[in-house]
Structures are given as structure tokens and as C-alpha cells.
Amino acid sequence: MCWRLSAVFVSALLGSLRSSSADSYVLSDDKGLGRDFDGIGGLSGGGATSRLLVNYPEPYRSQILDYLFKPNFGASLHILKVEIGGDGQTTDGTEPSHMHYEDDENYFRGYEWWLMKEAKKRNPDIVLIGLPWSFPGWLGHGKDWPYDFPDVTADYVVKWIIGAKKYHDLHIQYVGIWNERNFDAKYIKVLRDTLDRVGLKGVGIIAADGDWSIANSMISDPYLYNSVDVIGAHYPGTNTVPQALKTLKKLWSSEDYSTFNDDVGAGCWARILNQNYVNGHMTSTISWNLVASYYEELPFGRCGLMTAQEPWSGNYVVSHPIWITAHTTQFTQPGWTYLQTVGHLAKGGSYVALTDGKGNLTVVIETMTHDHSVCIRPPLPAFNLTSQTATFNLQGSFASVKELQVWRSQFNFKTQKPSFFEKLTAVKLVNGSFTLDLAEDEVYTLTTITTGTKGSYADPPPSARFPKAYKDNFNAQDPPFSEASNFADQTGVFEYFMNTSDPGPHVFTMRQVVTQRPVTWTADADQTISVIGDFQWKNLTVTCDAFMENVKNGGVFIAARVSKGGEEVRRAKGVFFWVFANGTYSVTSDIGGQTVVTQGKSGTEAFTWYTLSLTVQGQKASGTLNGKLLWTSSVPVEPPNGWAAIGTASFELAQFDNFSVVAE
């Protein structure tokens, strides 16, 4: 224990000698309590943010899950919020719907079911939430809008909730409306009625996962008011609005953080976890995202509580936001209550106090400076913070507390020697008081709870680039997941497929299955695409067997140096080698096919397997069809590098097999 903390605890014993220089704060329940605490959570989805996690080998995958969900070990999250997949691009990829088509239901697609079960396995009390970002195209009836037939949309969402219970024994406790899009009051009421009608009265509705504007509508519409259980806002900047407070509903920051997970990101998280309640009376804060488990060059790389983006190496990073989370989550539980006596420290920073109503008390203090706690959004107004001495006086039912456990994180930006979630010697209270010397950029937890632990495992394997030689024949007879390892769908959905009609070598394939443009959340491409590999690849050969199923307008491609994904996928450039069912081929430098490098006759048709191979070397490229050279051409200098990819010319059925890539 360092000398400064020794002095702190001596001062706690001799607090009266320093009372003149210390600012004093009362922690008491004499005048009642504040709002009920609903928990701290992480968000998987919005979209495909956990895509690479499922591919991790054991024991590393289980270790990552332990750091996220295991009580008294790491982040010990209280809440897991997941995307209800809708087949559309929702930031870093697409997540598959449980109903690709109106007459289709499948509750084993994707990985969110698996993730919820793994979270529940570690913490049976974890709260589960579902929220749609996009919807399958059939639901919009030709429009990019899910509300024209509210009963159809409500039925679709309720089926997902029922499927979670029926097939996975998962109880979804809350469901949202449509992420960060305009809410529809009629739809919310229909959803509430539908839930009630099928016996799901206990499933609460969170609305509207955007700004606070729904509060005005709730105040003027009693039916809507009674339909909504939680008002959820995104990136509220720790502030709420009077109308939301007037509703007396639970107020949540139902998506927040979204910041690069270095130490400034950890500082952002520390500040908002406290100040969302101090400033905004928000009783839950949920991080987007849970774990950065997607290719880092996609939008918002490493904006998770921790990083797990290398399943091929097994490497992962327990980023410092994990331990900032632990300062709250390991010493509280949903159902605890905030004290009314919370607030700002005199020289900057904040403190909150919570109780379980059974004599336990947890106090969390943060002194994050402005420049070391900036979140990605919204802009953070300037404020000053300096080191200070603070005395806390426990009164009311806490006056008899004699000892508090102490956990501390010091960012130490100047020395670059941080210390996170360090257990210190317990502080002895004298006359119900203790005094702390608080430096800049620190987080303290003082608590009666004695079960806190900084969990750890042996270091994972070292970081490594994606293998330069990689192949996948998709021969998965009983795959644990519907998607092939390491492929990251950016438009459309590519699934393992058993082609029982094929008598030859293509029984097990990967198939693009989305046949109609989804009700979108962002700008999906007009083509489907799944990327894979190392974004730094420059010179490489991509080979894949392809099978078109659209006789009139079918088309497939393989690609190299793909420059964009996520919500920027429409602007992807690279080298795209296309063949079409009309007997032609094309080579373009963009996914939209607007810039043609070369084109000609290929003799290709639907319902026939072809082997495509693309080689890119410097500014030269060539393509073969069934082993025979079809074209050679110069290609643009830009982009100089990017992913490999496969895809289709439109939302159409097509199959792929025997994928391989060899890069220099």
C-alpha cells in the first residue's frame, strides 16, 4: 500500500484534525431513499459486434465470457442486451433474423442465443433485453418501414421472445421498439397488447431507444404511458429532461459509451456510470458494445468493454473499462436503491451511494478530469477538477458502520503506470466518518460487501495476424453456429447449407439466403457481401466455387482489397470479379459495379458450379474460371489493401464452397 493511502487511513482515524481542510459530505437515509438501481449492462449487436467471439478456441472463449459475466470476477454485468437480428446491416455487420421469410421460423441462427445462455450460465440473475435494429424485408410489405402493419411487426417480435424461452429456456425481461428510429405510438400499444395476450405481461417495454421525446407523448396519452415500462435514451450526456422525470417511469441510458477502450475510454465510462444518476436520475447504463469482437477496421473498432478480435490466435485484451465496471457491479445488484445523498464533489468529480436495504452500503467516487473522460458523443462541456480532500459522514441507518472495504483505480496519465481495481486495506470509521485524499483521475469504491475479486487467468496467446493461407470447405454436418468462422456478413446473410440435391462434392456449402432488401437501419449495399481476413492484405489470390440460383439476373463475385464494411459498405472499393447467369463476367473497382475495369463473355449460367480465382499483384490482376485464364488487367492504385470477400449481385440465393485465400 502506497504512502498516500496510509496517510488517508490515518486521517480517517484522526479525521477531526483535518476537518478544516476537507469538504464534507453526508451519506444518509434519514429522509428516505432515491430511485431503485436497475443495473449495469453490455450490448451485443447493433450490429454483429460479437461476431468473432464464437470462433475462439477453448479455454480462451470461456475466459472472455468469465471476464464479462461471472459474478465477483470481472465486469460482472447485471444486464445483457442483444440485437433481435433482422438480416440488415446495423453498424459492423448483419445479424440473421429468426424469420428470413414470412413462412420461416428458425431459433438457432446467429450467436445471440448462445451468448445469452453463456451469460445466464455464469449469472442466473442476469437481465436479458432484446431490441430490433432492422427487420426482414417481407415485414415492410415493400416499404422501408415496419409500422404500416403493427400487428405483423408485433407478432414477429413476440415470436422471438417466445422462441427464446421455448428453444433456449431464456426469459427475456425487456424488449425495445426500433433502435434510434422514430417511434410509433400505435405500434407500442399493439406490442403491449400482443405480449399480454400470449401471457407475457411480465415482459417490459423500453422506449424509444433514441432521445427523450417519447416522454411528451406518454404524458398526453395514458394508453401509451401504461404500455411503456422504461424510458430509454441513447448517449444522453448524463442529462435527462423535465418531461421524462415527470413521468415517474424508470429512466435508463439504454445505450452509452461507444468509445475506444483505451484509458480515456475507461475514464469516459467511469464518469458516466456515476453521473448518469447524479445528473440525470438514470438507474441503468448499458455499454455499446459488450466486447469488441469484430474486425478492428470496421466502424467503431475497439469500442467495447474489452477486445476479443483474434480467434485465430486466441489473443484477447482485458481492457480497463472491465475494471471500471467492476467498481459498481461487484458491490451492487439490481434492486438496490440509490441514496438521496449523491452528488458532485466540491472540486470536481462525483459520488453515488447505494444500499440493499439490509444494512449494506456501497459508495463509488470518481474524479475524472475533462480531457481524460471524453466520450465519443455527445460533446463534453468544459469543467475543472483538482485534487481534494473529502470527508464522508455516514448517518441514519449507516451510522453504526465500523469498516468499509476499499477498491481503487488510479489512471496515472502522467506516469503512464496505471493501477486498476486494486484492493486496499479496509478503512476503519471513527464516529461514522472517513476521509480520503482524492487525486485527479481516480475511482474509489468503499463498501460493506466483502466478496469483490479481481479475477485473472494466465496470459492468452500473443497477438497474431490473420493466417496468410486460409481455407474453408464448409463441410459442417452439424455446425454449432449458422455462420462459417471468421466470415463477417456486411450485407445479406451467409449460412451453412446442406445441399441434399447435389450428388457430387458440394453437399455442404455456404449459402446467401436473403432474397429481399431488409427494412434497413443504415445504408445496406444493393449487393450482398461477406468479408474475411486481414485488412492489410495487398497481394493475394482468392479462390472459391460458386453456384448461382437466379436464372434471369443471377450474379456472384469474389473480391480482394475490399476497403469498406459496416455502415459504409455501399462505398466499398477493391477488386471485384463477377460472373453472371447471362453468360458474362465483369471486373469492377467498387461493389456497386459502377467503375468497370474489364468485362466480356464467360459462358456462365445458373445451377452450375464454377471455380473462380482472383489474383491481385501490385497494379495487375487476373481471373480464372474453372482453372482457365479469363482475363488480365491493370487495376487502380486505390485501395492498396483490404479484406477478401464473396458475395452476390443482388439479394438472391447463391452458394459458395471451397473458399481459399493465399496472401503474401
TrEMBL record:
<keyword id="KW-0325">Glycoprotein</keyword>
<dbReference type="InterPro" id="IPR049161">
    <property type="entry name" value="GH59_cat"/>
</dbReference>
<feature type="domain" description="Glycosyl hydrolase family 59 catalytic">
    <location>
        <begin position="37"/>
        <end position="330"/>
    </location>
</feature>
<keyword id="KW-0746">Sphingolipid metabolism</keyword>
<keyword id="KW-0378">Hydrolase</keyword>
<comment type="function">
    <text>Hydrolyzes the galactose ester bonds of glycolipids such as galactosylceramide and galactosylsphingosine.</text>
</comment>
<dbReference type="InterPro" id="IPR001286">
    <property type="entry name" value="Glyco_hydro_59"/>
</dbReference>
<dbReference type="InterPro" id="IPR035394">
    <property type="entry name" value="Glyco_hydro_59_dom"/>
</dbReference>
<feature type="signal peptide">
    <location>
        <begin position="1"/>
        <end position="22"/>
    </location>
</feature>
<dbReference type="Pfam" id="PF17387">
    <property type="entry name" value="Glyco_hydro_59M"/>
</dbReference>
<dbReference type="InterPro" id="IPR013785">
    <property type="entry name" value="Aldolase_TIM"/>
</dbReference>
<dbReference type="GO" id="GO:0004336">
    <property type="term" value="F:galactosylceramidase activity"/>
</dbReference>
<dbReference type="GO" id="GO:0016020">
    <property type="term" value="C:membrane"/>
</dbReference>
<comment type="similarity">
    <text>Belongs to the glycosyl hydrolase 59 family.</text>
</comment>
<keyword id="KW-0326">Glycosidase</keyword>
<feature type="active site" description="Nucleophile">
    <location>
        <position position="255"/>
    </location>
</feature>
<keyword id="KW-0732">Signal</keyword>
<keyword id="KW-1015">Disulfide bond</keyword>
<dbReference type="Pfam" id="PF21708">
    <property type="entry name" value="Glyco_hydro_59_C"/>
</dbReference>
<keyword id="KW-0458">Lysosome</keyword>
<feature type="domain" description="Glycosyl hydrolase family 59 central">
    <location>
        <begin position="338"/>
        <end position="452"/>
    </location>
</feature>
<dbReference type="GO" id="GO:0005764">
    <property type="term" value="C:lysosome"/>
</dbReference>
<dbReference type="GO" id="GO:0006683">
    <property type="term" value="P:galactosylceramide catabolic process"/>
</dbReference>
<keyword id="KW-0442">Lipid degradation</keyword>
<feature type="active site" description="Proton donor/acceptor">
    <location>
        <position position="180"/>
    </location>
</feature>
<keyword id="KW-0443">Lipid metabolism</keyword>
<dbReference type="InterPro" id="IPR049162">
    <property type="entry name" value="GH59_C"/>
</dbReference>
<dbReference type="Pfam" id="PF02057">
    <property type="entry name" value="Glyco_hydro_59"/>
</dbReference>
<protein>
    <recommendedName>
        <fullName>Galactocerebrosidase</fullName>
        <ecNumber>3.2.1.46</ecNumber>
    </recommendedName>
</protein>
<feature type="domain" description="Glycosyl hydrolase family 59 C-terminal lectin">
    <location>
        <begin position="489"/>
        <end position="663"/>
    </location>
</feature>
<dbReference type="InterPro" id="IPR017853">
    <property type="entry name" value="GH"/>
</dbReference>
